[in-house]
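Changelog excerpt

This revision adds worked examples to the README so contributors can see how folded entries look when concatenated. The first example is reproduced verbatim below.
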Amino acid sequence: MPTFETTARFDRDFRKLPPAERERFKETVRDKFVPDVVSGQFRPGLRVKPIQGVRLPDGESPVMEMTWAPDGRATWQFGDGQRAGERHVIWRRVGGHEIFDPGPA
């Protein structure tokens, strides 16, 4: 099972989601995202892809986008493993398409 952490920005975004959307996101992570991370193969319905134009330090994992609802998006990236042999996911943003607006940090 992968380990997770969240950024402060993700936490703020998550608190703004209506309760039904928070639950839908959690169900998607539990029932689809986690099994796909474990298997190493993302299902087409999650539409996981790298975000274009994000510059990162050399060696850092790319920032990825995932679709979890018709207007539900989350950004994340793999981080340094916390437990041997298991992936570590850093959740960066969650919400609708507005999460792609860089805005203030």
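The second example, added in the same revision:
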Amino acid sequence: MILNLTPHPIRLYASEREDGSDDLDSHLRAVFPPEETPARLATIELGGGITFEMVEFGHAQNLPPKRDGVQYIVSLVVALALADRRSDLLVPYREVRNASGTVIGCRSFAQPV
């Protein structure tokens, strides 16, 4: 089972799907609706100065514990922050773009390592 912990639906297209079309259904394989609460990367502000802030990243919020047979679609920043600790996180890969260049889905998922 794959659960989507991003704030928007993820459309998975077949590899032959070409960019530049506004037809959302062409070569569509699956749609993963978002779960109620997205996983986010929390920040801790450590101080700084006038021109910058020192910020610690890497603490995930709203990410369920690992479960057998379940993988989670998350943002790339969440997956990269936890790549050394979680093998159940997926990110959209090989983006599909519409006629105006906006990302509307992906052709596969990647597992950051």
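Reviewer comment on example two: The mean pLDDT is 93. The CA atoms of residues 14 and 29 lie 6 Å apart.
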